[in-house]
Amino acid sequence: MRLLPLFLMCCALSAGAVERVSVCFNYGCLAQSEVEISDERLAEIGRLLKVAGDAESERKAISTAVGRMLAWAGEQSPIRADRGGNYADEGVYGRMDCIDHSTTTTRLLRLIEAKGMLRFHHVLDPALRRRFLLFEHYSALIEEREPGASDCGCDGETETDPSKQFVVDSWFFDNGHAAAVMPLARWKSGESPGESPNENE
Questions:
Q1: pTM
Q2: How far are the Cα atoms of 86, 124, 173 from residue 80, in angstroms, in the given order?
């Protein structure tokens, strides 16, 4: 009978396990808030990604996963007020610019990568596009790779191939919407997502 309280305590600790992630807001990561993502919710993301049988379908799953995780973060932080772009929520506490989005989305992607949920991609540092010398825009960035391939080269540094890189840009949409995923080259040219958030072609 003495084992029962110990067993119940262990179950309670297991049920309450969470991962903590800092989300940025108010432009330029001026403010940050720590949010929690439960193991149960991470398992939901894991199931979403597990059904992806190739890189293209994994990108679609990543798009949905990022939107879902940002929505959960919005339940616990001011980013619930964020609206797509920089004008619909101008002056609102919790608004996010592209620096906030690229930083936060990269953190979320690194979390699911660390959990072994990405089989066809690995996470890179955010990408930058610059137009007319004045306008800069950042986005989270992933790179396609063969399943089971090493992320690193012989020198210990990450090898990258721009032709296999895709932005994961959550800035275009309101909080909780699936992120735009499109080839880096198209994004660099100034392209914005169309009606669908998944721009894998």
A1: 0.84
A2: 15, 26, 12
